[in-house]
């Protein structure tokens, strides 16, 4: 089960995090570019692990547990490195906060709802949010220094990444609200014994 390809892909997302952190910490144009590639490859595995699990009939509780954890760890590490290395403008900090808070909110809701045996399905809008979020973070990890490395120094990569991050934050608020209202609806109808 742990060696099934979908679970290996999920675990590879977690394994990529230390490499990503080191690459961003080095702060060279080439390591920024490699960090973007590592992040992009890790983000793509999020699509393929679920697709392969369904196609190969390798759905498992382990995969269901690890997949959202891997996503949240990857996003949190990227956001914290961008903020910690001053790679976001002051205005870019706000969508980063929104994204982190939503991840914590949804994790708490999922934990609570699992306790009362209710699932919280991923919506189509949440998939769009993830796509924009991953695209924004990959772009921000590449940064302006990567544009110079690719001989297009005029391209405002950081500005594009922050604009994408704001779009991701707006989608994050919408999907977070959807999840919160669904969670509250289930909490209100759950028997008191299950809520304690």
Q: Spell out the helices and strands N to C.
A: HHHHHHH
CATH class: Mainly Alpha
Number of domains: 1
Count of discrete alpha- or pi-helical segments spanning 4 or more residues: 7
DSSP, total strands: 0
Oligomerization: single chain
User: Average pLDDT across residues?
Assistant: 88
CATH topology: Four Helix Bundle (Hemerythrin (Met), subunit A)
Q: Outline the biggest β-sheet.
A: none
Structural class: mainly alpha
Broad shape: globular
Describe the structure.
Helix content is 81%, strand content 0%. It has 196 residues and is mostly helical. The longest helix is centred in the C-terminal third of the chain and has 33 residues, at 157-189. Helix 2 runs antiparallel to helix 5 (124-149), helix 3 (61-84) packs antiparallel against helix 4 and helix 3 (61-84) crosses helix 5. The chain has one domain: Four Helix Bundle (Hemerythrin (Met), subunit A).
Break the fold down into its secondary structure elements and pairings.
Blueprint: H1 5-26, H2 29-55, H3 61-84, H4 93-115, H5 124-149, H6 157-189, H7 192-195
Helix pairs in contact: 1-2, 1-3, 2-3, 2-5, 3-4, 3-5, 4-6, 5-6
Keywords summarizing the entry:
mainly alpha, single chain, Four Helix Bundle (Hemerythrin (Met), subunit A), 81% helix, 0% strand, 196 residues, globular
Explain briefly what this protein structure is.
The chain has 7 helices and no strands. It has 196 residues and is mainly α.
